[in-house]
Amino acid sequence: MKTLAIKILPVAMIALSSCGNDSENVQAPEIVQKAFNLKFKHAESVKWEKENDSEWEAEFTINKDEFSANFDLQGNWKETERSINEGELPSFVVDEIDENFSDYEIEEAEVVETANGISYECLVEMREHKYEVKIAENGAFSKQEIEDSDDED
Fold it and tell me: Do 145 and 131 contact (CB within 8 A), yes or no?
């Protein structure tokens, strides 16, 4: 019996270790991966994640720029986001933020491309409040306050 336990233990350990969090090894369905590879031929360091029940998201780099792209389950492209520096924001975006906020800091900025066009998303901090700001090329503006999960109250 002791010999059987010694033989089974390594197999059980390998099997259990493969049941852990495989988030680093997640692969999108083949149809989604093919669509991604056609659209982003030069993508590197691709990491897949199931965004929700109907979309997959790939995070990747191209020429050291950070991107994410979403595809539906049939491989149809939905959107691409590219992280940018505050200095890369167009003047109309900065002007719109200046109009709606005072004494603010832009913590993150992204260019978002969809079938409907390009918009800009920024995480803006103003006096201990954070806002997700979206500004479309046509000037449409929206903001939403984000609850800070790090409150120490």
Answer: yes
As to burial, measured by CB atoms within 10 angstroms (0-12 exposed, 13-18 middle, 19+ buried), residue 124 is: buried
**CA-wise closest residue to 77 among 33, 27, 138, 121:** 33
pTM value is 0.76
Q: What pLDDT digit, counting tens, does each position of 59-111 carry?
A: 999 999 999 999 999 999 999 999 999 999 999 999 999 999 989 999 999 99
Structure tokens at 129: 């409040």
Instruction: Report the C-alpha gap between 140 and 147 in whole angstroms.
Output: 23
Q: What are the pLDDT digits (tens) for 25-48?
A: 689 999 999 999 999 999 999 999
Task: Provide the b/e sequence for 34-62 (b: ≥16 CB within 10 Å).
Answer: ebbeeebeebeebebeeeeeebbbbebee
Q: How far apart are CA 68 and CA 4, in angstroms?
A: 49
Amino acid letter, residue 79: E
Q: Please state the φ and ψ torsions of residue 91, each to the nearest 5 degrees.
A: -60, -35
Structure tokens at 84: 């940018």
